[in-house]
């Protein structure tokens, strides 16, 4: 099948694919099949004191549960240090998970051995935030993009080259990119290259870790449109990690909001923006400056700073900054409750 | 004329590089008044940070940097005065806040020391008076327990706190003009809104002029009074915030505004884009600099340079076709 | 099908052009840098003399003529003769073989060993602790003392000089490679390769190693120069290249005894050492500028 997928369809000749090349995958609306089911995922980083004894942990991701439907875009938002990037990296086992289960195609990928999981990696790809450090400066772009196929033993070198030319065209880059080096490209072009490298092995899921936050506004919209086009063409599922709510709103079908390692709210995009239930989500939404000077916003200015994840506050960890906090918030950890269909929130006070 | 706090006339900043002379800022003019916030907007490489640093003459390397034009600050041309006079103005009359709060603070000195330094340097106050002033500044910017904080080092406080300290340092001598170069870009939104509110209230209290450099149009819309849009070293459009957002005339401004994803309204619409990317300063287009990326460009745009025209309501625009384009856009939307 | 062939031909033309352009740019940058040009001219001359030595001199370095001892430089003996009546020019030229040979071999051996040690200790934490403590131990001795001790243990022989100097300098090279590799290891493209399931072998040799090459090459030119100096020092002290084979160091030793009546015996080998070391250091400094990515603005 893999070889099949790589063959250049000679009838077209100009480098486009036959329909067999990519398996058609159900897009939203069809059977809402879970592609990735994440249950109770935890990632604690040990903090060593001066003599090297571990006593404390940074709870970067603390008991997060959610799932991704096939073909959808799931936006993960939160401020820096809330654990959203760590969550993405933990799912891909770039850092060893502390606890939890992640089901992909019926198997718990956290239970697979390293060599078994290596075979799954081509289905689970990642696009990184920093377009400047995500490409090896000493490798030609073509070699960088072809490398995932080399690692997974796909095709002959000739087939790989054809495939790279093809994918370059798909992400909107000229064929001569193949022979150039990363320093010759701007941030936006490098992000296209990063995307090409992720898509070259026909993945099912792409984790996009802040893929546009390092880019200029006009380039950002080009990349967002490209992400959407590619999703439609290849039936991709995205886990879109970002801090920019307007971007996340634009691209996501569902959104999860994280605060200090926990997921505080999850809902479909329109529902979340229309009826935010968690006070943190409300504050977050109100503090984005609106690009229309006529609309004067009523801001909920949160007091204080994000607490350290080494010693997170007791009970609901948002209570130190929450304008509504009561005694129960300081004592009990709120449970994740489905308040409306598909709208989950972890707050004692949400109605 | 002449009663503006800061008036920049036809400023050009040149750098000599390995591949010849490059003009990063090419003939820009604008002014800032007391109590107002001028936003300088543009993408990376448009010369907005170079403009800010030129005002304080932060590029001083002889033979590498050269300036043309005038920068009038309270009647003095900053490009003509001596280095020692310039040093008296820096940090005293004109202050600057930088983007990265961690690398702009010296890690080996306490926060107090760093706030006191400009006060002692410029206002010739004693150490004790400067210390009291530092505490006062920390209170002003809303840092709890300032008596303890003055003795802490930059690494002991969070990013938002550091940016507050940078603001305290910048405001310690009660400057008349504050230049803020992307002051909140490195911060989270909830912290960003705290900082911007703070700058806003301090502006009213101290009656400063502020030059805010940013790429975030939301920040511009909510916190500024006037805007200058820069593209490739030139100001392409300038005007009041409201008229600029409501009725952008330059195709670049239009492109910028319509390419940001919306927080309200239909989200399933494709984002409009500005095609291509900003050319390098070595390959500046011959005619209008935006022409190669402009959807309205014709032969005239490609070959002839437009001038910055002044329209009514202090609006200025650099485009051959702004009148026809205006119609085209209002029809399209 | 025709179209594809056409396209490929176009691209291979493009590839050729781009490579040519890249070479042209490098050559231009190389020649615009005075340090590298001066350094490489000196080194090339020294190497030329080393290789062509026998053709340049009508004397051999071993032939003793008792009647013409300590003759001042003349047309017959360009550099004069030494205390045993040997032609000094021939001895300095042949001595270059020992000095440059030792320098080059040491530079190559330490680069290879240092790279392996540096890369693996940067990648594996446990290995790092072990290897770097060994390096620290070796680096605690002054280079020349360690070299003397090793030579005393191994016996005076030119091969042993190389072994001793390689042992002395490898820890320094390993340190340089390790610190470069530690920076590279944290780059996102390494994480991207891990996310693809690349083996450690591929990451270390395919991705980290090429990015540590430029500091390594620069540093190895300095090692080359240092090795020449230490070799001269060892030979001067009598634990380096054994007599009667000439080396700049042992010519200096012979000259030391007659320094007041035969200046040429210390002057010429001294100048040879200075020139070759200076040439290498200039070349290294220039190379550092040339390979530094911050000054490397390739044309778009």
Automatic annotation (TrEMBL), chain A:
GO terms for molecular function: ATP binding; ATP hydrolysis activity. It holds the Pfam family oligo_HPY. Residues 36-285 form the ABC transporter domain. Keywords: ATP-binding, Nucleotide-binding, Transport. One of its GO terms (biological process) is transmembrane transport. It comes from the Bacteria. Belongs to the ABC transporter superfamily. PANTHER family: ABC TRANSPORTER, ATP-BINDING PROTEIN, TRANSPORT ATP-BINDING PROTEIN. This is Dipeptide ABC transporter ATP-binding protein. It comes from Neobacillus rhizophilus. The lineage of its organism: Bacteria, Bacillati, Bacillota, Bacilli, Bacillales.
TrEMBL record, chain B:
NCBIfam families: oligo_HPY. Keywords: ATP-binding, Cell membrane, Membrane, Nucleotide-binding, Transport. It is found in: Cell membrane. The keyword Cell membrane applies. One of its GO terms (cellular component) is plasma membrane. GO terms for biological process: peptide transport. It is a peripheral membrane protein. Belongs to the ABC transporter superfamily. Pfam families: ABC_tran, oligo_HPY. This is ABC transporter ATP-binding protein. GO terms for molecular function: ATP binding; ATP hydrolysis activity. Residues 6-257 form the ABC transporter domain. The lineage of its organism: Bacteria, Bacillati, Bacillota, Bacilli, Bacillales.
Automatic annotation (TrEMBL), chain C:
GO terms for cellular component: plasma membrane. Coiled coil: none annotated. Residues 100-284 form the ABC transmembrane type-1 domain. SUPFAM superfamilies: MetI-like (SSF161098). InterPro entries: BP-dependent_transpt_permease, MetI-like, MetI-like_sf, OppC_N. The chain crosses the membrane at residues 30-56, 98-122, 134-155, 161-184, 262-283. GO terms for biological process: transmembrane transport. It is found in: Cell membrane. The keyword Membrane applies. Belongs to the binding-protein-dependent transport system permease family. This is ABC transporter permease. It comes from Neobacillus rhizophilus.
């Amino acid at each position: 099948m893999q070889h099949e997928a790589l063959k250049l369809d000679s009838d077209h000749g100009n480098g486009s694919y036959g329909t067999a090349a990519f398996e058609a995958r159900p897009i939203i609306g069809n059977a809402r099949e879970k592609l990735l089911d994440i249950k109770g995922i935890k990632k604690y980083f040990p903090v060593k004191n001066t003599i090297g004894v571990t006593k404390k942990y940074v709870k970067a991701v603390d008991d997060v549960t959610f799932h991704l439907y096939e073909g959808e875009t799931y936006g993960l938002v939160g401020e820096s240090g809330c654990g959203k990037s760590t969550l993405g990296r933990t799912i891909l086992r770039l850092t060893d998970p502390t606890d939890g289960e992640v089901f992909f195609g019926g198997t718990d990928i956290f239970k697979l051995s390293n060599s078994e999981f290596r075979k799954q990696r081509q289905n689970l790809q990642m696009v990184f935030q920093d377009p400047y450090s995500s490409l090896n400066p000493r490798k030609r772009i073509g070699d960088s993009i072809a490398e995932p196929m080399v690692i997974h033993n796909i095709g002959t070198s000739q087939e790989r080259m054809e495939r790279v030319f093809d994918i370059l065209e798909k992400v909107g880059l000229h064929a001569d990119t193949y022979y150039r080096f990363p320093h010759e490209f701007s941030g936006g072009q490098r992000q296209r290259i990063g995307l090409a490298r992720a898509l070259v092995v026909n993945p099912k899921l792409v984790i996009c870790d802040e893929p546009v936050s390092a880019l200029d506004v006009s380039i950002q919209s080009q990349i967002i449109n490209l992400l959407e086009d590619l999703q439609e063409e290849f039936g991709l599922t995205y886990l879109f990690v970002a801090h920019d709510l307007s971007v996340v709103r634009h691209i996501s079908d569902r959104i999860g909001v994280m605060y200090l390692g926990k997921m505080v709210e999850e809902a479909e995009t329109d529902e979340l923006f229309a009826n935010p239930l968690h006070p943190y989500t409300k504050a977050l939404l109100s503090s984005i400056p609106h690009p229309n000077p006529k609309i004067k916003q009523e801001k909920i200015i949160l007091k204080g700073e994000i607490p350290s994840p080494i010693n997170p506050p007791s009970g609901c960890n948002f209570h130190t900054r929450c304008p509504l906090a009561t005694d129960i918030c300081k004592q009990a950890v709120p449970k994740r409750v489905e308040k409306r269909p598909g709208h989950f929130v972890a707050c004692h006070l949400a109605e | 004329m002449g009663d503006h706090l800061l008036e920049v006339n036809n400023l050009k900043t040149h750098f000599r590089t390995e591949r010849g002379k490059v003009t990063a800022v090419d003939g820009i003019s604008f002014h800032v008044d007391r109590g107002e916030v001028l936003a300088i907007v543009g993408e990376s490489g448009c010369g907005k940070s170079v403009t800010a640093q030129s005002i304080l003459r932060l590029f001083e390397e002889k033979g590498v940097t050269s300036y043309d034009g005038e920068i009038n600050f309270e009647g003095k041309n900053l490009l003509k005065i001596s280095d020692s006079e310039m040093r008296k103005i820096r940090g005293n009359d004109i202050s600057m806040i930088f983007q990265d709060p961690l690398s702009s603070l010296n890690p080996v000195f306490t926060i107090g020391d760093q706030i006191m330094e400009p006060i002692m340097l410029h206002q010739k106050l004693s150490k004790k008076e400067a210390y009291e002033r530092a505490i006062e500044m920390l209170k002003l910017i809303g840092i709890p327990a300032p008596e303890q904080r003055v003795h802490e080092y930059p690494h002991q406080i969070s990013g938002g706190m550091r940016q507050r300290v940078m603001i305290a340092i910048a405001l310690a001598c009660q400057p008349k003009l504050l230049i803020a170069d992307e002051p909140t870009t490195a911060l989270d939104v909830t912290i960003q809104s705290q900082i911007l509110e703070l700058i806003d209230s301090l502006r009213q209290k101290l009656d400063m002029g502020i030059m805010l450099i940013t790429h975030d149009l939301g920040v511009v819309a909510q916190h500024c009074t006037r805007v200058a849009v820069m593209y490739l070293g030139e100001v392409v459009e300038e005007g009041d915030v409201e008229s600029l957002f409501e009725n952008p005339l330059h195709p670049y401004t239009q492109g910028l505004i319509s390419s940001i994803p919306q927080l309200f309204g239909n989200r399933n619409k494709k984002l409009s884009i500005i095609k291509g990317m900003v050319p390098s300063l070595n390959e500046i287009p011959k005619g209008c600099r935006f022409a190669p990326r402009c959807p309205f460009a014709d032969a005239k745009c490609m070959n002839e340079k437009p001038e910055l025209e002044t329209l009514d309501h202090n609006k200025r625009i650099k485009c051959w076709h702004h009148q026809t384009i205006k119609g085209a856009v209002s029809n399209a939307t | 099908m025709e179209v594809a062939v056409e396209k490929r031909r176009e691209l291979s033309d493009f590839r050729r052009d781009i490579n040519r352009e890249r070479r042209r740019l490098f050559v231009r940058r190389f020649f615009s840098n005075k340090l590298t040009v001066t350094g490489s001219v000196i080194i090339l001359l020294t190497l030329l003399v080393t290789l062509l030595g026998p053709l340049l001199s009508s004397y051999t370095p071993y032939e003793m003529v008792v009647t013409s001892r300590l003759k001042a430089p003349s047309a017959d003996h360009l550099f004069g003769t030494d205390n045993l009546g040997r032609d000094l020019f021939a001895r300095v030229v042949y001595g270059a073989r020992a000095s440059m040979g030792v320098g080059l071999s040491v530079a190559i051996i330490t680069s290879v060993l240092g790279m392996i040690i540096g890369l693996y200790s940067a990648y594996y934490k446990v290995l790092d602790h072990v290897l770097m403590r060994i390096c620290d131990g070796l680096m605690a001795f002054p280079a020349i003392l360690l070299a003397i001790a090793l030579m005393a243990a191994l016996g005076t022989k030119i091969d042993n000089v190389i072994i001793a100097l390689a042992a002395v300098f490898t820890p320094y090279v390993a340190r340089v490679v390790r610190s470069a590799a530690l920076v590279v290891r944290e780059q996102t493209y390494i994480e991207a390769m891990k996310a693809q399931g690349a083996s450690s072998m591929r990451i270390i040799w395919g991705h980290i190693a090429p990015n540590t090459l430029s500091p390594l090459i620069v540093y190895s030119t300095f090692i080359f120069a240092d090795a020449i100096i230490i070799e001269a020092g060892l030979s001067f002290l009598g634990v380096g290249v054994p007599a009667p084979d000439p080396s700049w160091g042992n010519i200096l030793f012979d000259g030391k005894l007659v320094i007041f009546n035969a200046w040429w015996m210390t002057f010429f080998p001294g100048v040879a050492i200075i020139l070759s070391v200076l040439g290498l250091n200039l070349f290294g400094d220039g190379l550092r500028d040339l390979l530094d990515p911050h000054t490397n603005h390739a044309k778009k």
